[in-house]
Amino acid sequence: MKLTLLGTGTSCGVPVIGCQCEVCRSADPKDKRTRCSALVETENTRLLIDCGPDFRQQILPQPFRKIDGILITHSHYDHMGGMDDIRPYCQFGEINVYADPFAKESMLEMLPYCFAENRYPGVPAIGLHEILPHVPFRIGDFEIVPFEVMHGKLPILGYRIGPLAYITDMKTINDSEMPYLEGVEVLVVNALRFTKPHHSHQLVDDAIAFAQRVGARRTLLIHMCHDVGLHEEVNQKLPEGIELAYDGQEIML
C-alpha cells in the first residue's frame, strides 16, 4: 500500500500570491505547497482523497491509470474545486465519488452539468455516493471507515484505511471518535502554523498533542500555510516521529 501526498498546503497554497516572505521566496521545492490531496493505492486499487483546484498539476507526474474512487473530506473549494479535471479518467468508466450528505449536495450545486438529465458531451461521468461516519465500505482492496472531526462548527470526514488515518482541516475531535484511530501506524493530520490561533484549524502544537494521543509510529503534518516556516528548519524542531510532509512525498505502508 502506497500513500502519495499530492498536495500539503492550505487553501491559498504556498507561495501565496503577492507575498515576499522567506517561505514564499524559498527555492526549496519542499516549501512549495499545492492544495491538500492524496493518493492511496495498491497494484489493483487506486483512491484519491479530495480533488482540489491543483489536481491537474498534481496528477500529471503520476502514472495514468484508473481511479477507483474519490473520497471527499468536505465541501470547501480547496478540496473539491478540481472535480472537472477528472474527465480524462472517465475513459476507464464512471468515477465513483464518496461524500457525506452536505458535501454531496454541495457537489450537485457546484457541478450541475455533470448530473443533468441531458448531459453535455464530454462532462465528467460521476457516480455520487452518500456515506456516513462509522459506516465502513469497500473499494477494491481497501476497507474504508469514515469518522467525524470538527472543522470549526462544520462536521467533516476523516478516513481510516487499514494502518492509515487521513485527517485534514480539523479543529477538534470528539472523544467518541478516538476508537476509530486505534492501531494507526501512519497518521496524516493538519497543522496550519505555530502561532495565531485559527477558528477552524488546529496549530502545530495541537497536531503534536493529537499525534501523541493517537500514538502512531509516524505522523505527517499537512494543510500548512506559509506562516509555518521553512520546511527543513521546522523539521529539525519537531518531536521524533512527527514531520512536515511535502508535495509528492511517498510513504509505503
Features:
single chain; 253 residues; alpha/beta; seven-stranded mixed β-sheet; 5 helices; 14 strands; 27% strand
Question: How would you describe the overall organization of this protein?
Answer:
The strands form two sheets. The chain has a seven-stranded mixed sheet with strand order 6-5-4-3-2-1-14. Strands 7-8-9-10-11-12-13 form a seven-stranded mixed sheet. 15% of the residues lie in helices and 27% in strands. It is globular and about 55 Å long. By secondary structure, it is an alpha/beta fold. The longest helix has 11 residues. α1 links the parallel β3 and β4.
In short:
This protein has 5 helices and 14 strands. With 253 residues, the protein is α/β, with parallel strands linked by helices. A 7-stranded mixed beta sheet has the order 6-5-4-3-2-1-14. A 7-stranded mixed beta sheet has the order 7-8-9-10-11-12-13.
